Amino acid sequence: MRLDRVNLRAVSDILRAMVKEAMMEPGKVVRMALPTSPSDGVQIFVKVRDGVVYVALRRPGGKEDPREMEALARHMGLRIVKGPYEEKGKLVRPGWAGRRSYLVAQCAKISESEKLEGVA
User: Fold this and answer.
1) How far apart are CA 93 and CA 72, in angstroms?
2) Whole-number pLDDT of residue 39
């Protein structure tokens, strides 16, 4: 099941904590696996570099959807500045179809004024 169809409010505190942890340690990748159904799930990665928050998601054995990234960023307290776009991992996996594929977006934290605009 896609992330934009799942109720992410239940895990929004965890998602926001991932962003907070990444901001406290720039350059460190914070990761989490989120099951979306008994047989499906996504991997979520957050990294801060040069003041920019990068959020990546990967669906093993499936195709990522840009709507998933939008829903994920919103529940993390972020807004997408650039993306989402597809990136390939660094490692070439022998016997597999090459490098892993990720959906990546450059994000910024939502300011208080933006939060108030969203409520009105």
Assistant:
1) 28
2) 79
